């Protein structure tokens, strides 16, 4: 049963988008037989691996039925609740363009958070309402609810959060979803969800028509190179997203890899890889905490750690020196509540050993001393 019976999707979707008549492509009508309807090259592809000619010379399915079926089974949702995009960034851009009138509407972010929400807002001339997380990187519920206006069409929440690594409290997320002044949607970015013990909040979709959940194949599945992201929402909203997207946004090669990834064999491999990364995350956390130059290692539910160095160490200088020496991490000290912090991705066992060796040696050197 819906906990937001007052939510009216049609009232917040841009009028021109709601009434959009999508492009009708050749594969909407037929996808089998002698296909001479889409002006494809019937002689063959110029660059192929043997056996790929037939698939690569044809436009891909705009519906991705097999992949959506397996994703739905994996996440315990329905296939018609799924949108697939070129990474999560396409889902972000699609949602902003569906809901936000340029120069009029706004989206709300909770920094420190994933930077693309702000970039996409600026690309689309959408106002940005910013309410920082608390110093322990949780939603400042009172201030967030207070900041919501009739123009707030999207609230972006990232959990586990990037760049901090922690889960946002579910009770706080629900408070935002329940807030009667919010006429727009809450977009919960779960890019790192498979590294948590809590798991996805996709079950909340049954109760909250104003919830959108984003996930990706880039992190736990280890497929950042194929650029494949997902958004889950009500069937009514995903229908709008799917008619808004370009008809062939998921290419044939990406589709093949995505189908393999959510097969039973692919899911087993993903879980095995995640288990190794979690072991390595625990090892890195232990080793960092033992270093006298490290002030704090923040709790992580992700495949990375946010590490704060003591005031005696210049974290930016350390980041630059390590990069010059072949180990690249991210300096996050310019983010709110992240002073003197580096974000460190959990690597392979050998990569992590080299990381620890360099941090231990360089952080103690005089040239890394804070000026």
TrEMBL record:
Its EC number is 2.6.1.9. Keywords: Amino-acid biosynthesis, Aminotransferase, Histidine biosynthesis, Pyridoxal phosphate, Transferase. PROSITE patterns: AA_TRANSFER_CLASS_2. Signal peptide: none annotated. The keyword Amino-acid biosynthesis applies. It is an enzyme of class 2 (transferase). InterPro entries: Aminotrans_II_pyridoxalP_BS, Aminotransferase_I/II_large, HisP_aminotrans, PyrdxlP-dep_Trfase, PyrdxlP-dep_Trfase_major, PyrdxlP-dep_Trfase_small. It catalyses: L-histidinol phosphate + 2-oxoglutarate = 3-(imidazol-4-yl)-2-oxopropyl phosphate + L-glutamate. It comes from the Eukaryota. Residues 36-357 form the Aminotransferase class I/classII large domain. It holds the Pfam family Aminotran_1_2. One of its GO terms (biological process) is L-histidine biosynthetic process. SUPFAM superfamilies: PLP-dependent transferases. One of its GO terms (molecular function) is histidinol-phosphate transaminase activity. Its cofactor is pyridoxal 5'-phosphate. Pathway: Amino-acid biosynthesis; L-histidine biosynthesis; L-histidine from 5-phospho-alpha-D-ribose 1-diphosphate: step 7/9. NCBIfam families: hisC. Belongs to the class-II pyridoxal-phosphate-dependent aminotransferase family. HAMAP family: HisC_aminotrans_2 (MF_01023). This is histidinol-phosphate transaminase. It comes from Capsaspora owczarzaki (strain ATCC 30864).
């Amino acid at each position: 049963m819906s906990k937001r019976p007052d939510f009216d999707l049609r009232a917040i979707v841009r009028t021109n988008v709601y009434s959009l008549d999508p492009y009708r492509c050749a594969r909407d009508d037929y996808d089998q037989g002698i296909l001479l309807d889409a002006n494809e090259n019937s002689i063959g592809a110029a660059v192929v691996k043997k056996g790929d000619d037939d698939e690569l010379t044809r436009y891909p399915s705009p519906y991705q039925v097999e992949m959506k079926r397996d994703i739905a089974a994996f996440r315990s949702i329905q296939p018609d609740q799924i949108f697939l995009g070129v990474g999560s960034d396409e889902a972000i851009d699609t949602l902003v363009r569906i809901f936000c009138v340029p120069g009029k509407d706004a989206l709300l972010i909770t920094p420190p958070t994933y930077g693309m929400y702000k970039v996409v807002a600026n690309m689309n001339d959408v106002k940005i309402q910013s309410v920082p997380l608390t110093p322990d990187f949780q939603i400042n519920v009172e201030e967030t609810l207070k900041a919501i206006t009739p123009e707030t069409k999207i609230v972006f929440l990232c959990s586990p959060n990037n760049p901090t690594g922690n889960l946002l409290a579910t009770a706080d997320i629900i408070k935002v979803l329940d807030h009667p002044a919010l006429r727009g949607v809450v977009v919960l970015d779960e890019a790192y969800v498979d590294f948590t013990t809590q798991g996805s909040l996709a079950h909340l979709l049954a109760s909250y028509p104003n919830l959108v959940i984003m996930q990706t194949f880039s992190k736990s599945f280890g497929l950042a190179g194929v650029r494949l992201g997902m958004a889950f929402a009500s069937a009514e909203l995903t229908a709008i997203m799917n008619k808004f997207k370009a008809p062939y946004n998921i290419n044939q090669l990406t589709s093949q890899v995505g189908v393999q990834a959510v097969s039973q064999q692919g899911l087993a491999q993903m879980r095995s890889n995640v288990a190794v990364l979690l072991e390595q995350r625990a090892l890195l956390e232990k080793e960092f905490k033992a270093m006298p130059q490290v002030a704090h290692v923040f709790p992580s539910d992700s495949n990375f750690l946010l590490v704060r160095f003591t005031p005696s160490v210049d974290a930016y200088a350390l980041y630059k020196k390590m990069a010059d020496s072949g180990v690249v991490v991210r300096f996050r000290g310019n983010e709110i509540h992240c002073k003197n912090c580096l974000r460190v991705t959990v690597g392979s066992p050998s990569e992590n050993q080299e990381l620890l060796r360099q941090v231990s040696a360089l952080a103690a050197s005089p040239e890394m001393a804070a000026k």
